[in-house]
Amino acid sequence: MEKKVRVRYAPSPTGYLHIGGARSALFNYLYAKKYNGDFVFRIEDTDIERNIPGAEESQLHDLIWLGIIPDESPEKPNPKYAPYRQMEKLDIYKKYAQKLVDMGVAYECYCTEDELAEMKEEQLSRGVKSFKYNRHCLNLTPEEKEKYKKEGRKPTIRLKMMENHEFKFHDLVRGDVSFNSNDIGDFVIMKSNGIPTYNFAVVVDDHLMEITHVLRGEEHLSNTPKQLQIYEYFGWEPPQFGHMTIIVNPNGKKLSKRDHNILQFMSQYKELGYLPEAIFNFLFLLGWTSENNQEIFTKEEAIKSFDPARLSSSPSMFDNKRLLWTNSYYIKHLNDEEYFDFILPFMKKVEFFAKKNEEELKKISLIFKQEIRNGQEIVDLLNEIVVKKENLGEEETAILDKPSSSIVIEVFKKSLQNLDEINEMNVKNLFKQVQSATGIKGKDLYMPIRIKLTGVMHGIEMFNIIDILGKEESLSRL
RNA sequence: GGCCUGUUGGAGAAGUGGCUUAACUCACUGCCCUCUCAAGGCAGCAUUCACGGGUCCGAAUCCCGUACAGGCUACCA
Fold first, then answer.
1. What is the separation of C-alpha A384 from the centre of its chain, rounded to a whole number of angstroms?
2. Between the CA of A312 and the C1' of B60, what is the distance in angstroms?
3. Closest nucleotide (CA of A199 to C1')?
């Protein structure tokens, strides 16, 4: 029987869910679901210095919000594979590290940070081609170890790399890749504080959790041979790897958490009124294309068509305009009920609408359904109408100064006063009346009124403006 | 420095030796619609695939070199 597909997303809780993380979770999820497998959410919290509170919850919940729902996680453990946080299974790593030491393929290293730095510098000055750990501690006698311990040194455990060994693997994204073990130094698998390093912990976890496929960022490509060495020593079957490209910012640089040009975190997009389905779709097409040029995918369609071999191997730039377009597409295709539920919290941000009843709000919200690209935009558009603009621009002032404008405004105001019901038909007729009464039409007719009402020369249909403001407020502005 | 990846219009990209005078989508530009903005409709937007060589009747596609970008080279993940 085929092994059940199991994939994972394993963030370190050092920050909230960001675009890159969400994307790699997304592709893993798609792969799992395509092959009826499990998607596991696991926490790699071995960098105890950098962990921040709340990061794990945010990572998990933002993922769920996106529709990337883990089958297993710290909140939903499968007893067979738990625990899902690395810091909760330190004894397990210790046991496996000891096993490697007993096998003679790992050894205690008592070198200090300073000594290591010195060694590196020394190698560099000699002009060595590729520097790596000089194996100073490889064959320490028990006496020497004792001496170091007395000095208060705490050892790390390093893995001994094989001599001149080719690590070959077939990358799901890049095809055949190979590395030579001679280029890689003996690396630390257990830190002196008894916590495993990333490269060691992933291997143990992936094996114990029976992970079959690993889709991860390209930054891990060079880590793969190290991990393969561990698999080889244990005699474990490694998962299939696929290395996806990173996402770069508009300057072509890797997205860094400190980059403020672009929003990094899912929660920020959520707050600005992006739909999870839109982000899902956008992320899906960032570095992946379908065979048939399809641009809009439901989750089910994405699952069905996903193929890691079609993942791009060159970096993708994050294009905010494209996200905006995708989001606007999804907003337009919401049904009116869904749309209203989505947009209501944003409308409520505008004070003017706080007291209005739902029926009214719903009607108004619909005016903007074709207009907005995210939730925040309706706030801006509504404010533009509702908040009276005090200082007019030059162009606007010039229009109001035209002789015809005062006539239009005068006549329009009178007719509006006499209007008993504001509806689309009535307002249209109103303009017709003003037109025949004054002989003024087109721009000269509409613009003065528009400017009087909102202070700007653009915006939604005039009837809607008057409707939103109400007769009283409209009259007072004219 | 070493090792490993990558490089097709402003962006995502299709393309796997002849059907490519390089698809599709976003952006951009113009036109139509229209009081205006948006939406929508239509049209335009790479004689060329980082550069230089080579193989071939034929190359964006294969080979070599160069340049540039990124990753790893941590007791970070």
1. 31
2. 16
3. B77
* Distance from C-alpha of A461 to C-alpha of A381, rounded to nearest angstrom: 13
Which residue has its C-alpha nearest to nucleotide B28's C1'? A321
- The class that CATH gives domain A1-73+245-333 is alpha beta
| Exposure b/e, A71-102, CB count within 10 A at least 16 = b | bbbbeeeeeebeebebbebbebbeebbeebbe
CATH classification code of A394-477 = 1.10.10.350
Task: For residue A349, give the DSSP letter.
Answer: T
User: How many C-beta atoms surround the C-beta of residue A142 within 10 A?
Assistant: 7
A246/A34 Cα distance (integer angstroms)? 23
For residue A308, cis peptide bond before it (omega within 30 degrees of 0): no
Q: What Å value separates CA A397 and C1' B47?
A: 51
Residue-range domain boundaries for chain A: 1-73+245-333, 88-244, 335-386, 394-477
From A95, A147, A168, A257, the catalytic residue: A257
Query: A88-244, what's its fold?
Result: Rossmann fold (3.40.50)
What is the tens place of the pLDDT at every residue in A370-407?
999 999 999 999 999 998 887 888 888 888 888 888 88
A257 part of the active site: yes
pTM (whole model) above 0.90: yes
Work out whether the CA dihedral A308, A309, A310, A314 comes out positive or negative: positive
Whose C1' is closest to the CA of A459: which nucleotide? B37
Q: Does the ipTM exceed 0.90? A: yes
CA of A384 to C1' of B25 (A): 32
Residue-level pLDDT at A422: 82
Euclidean distance between CA atoms A72 and A77, whole angstroms: 5
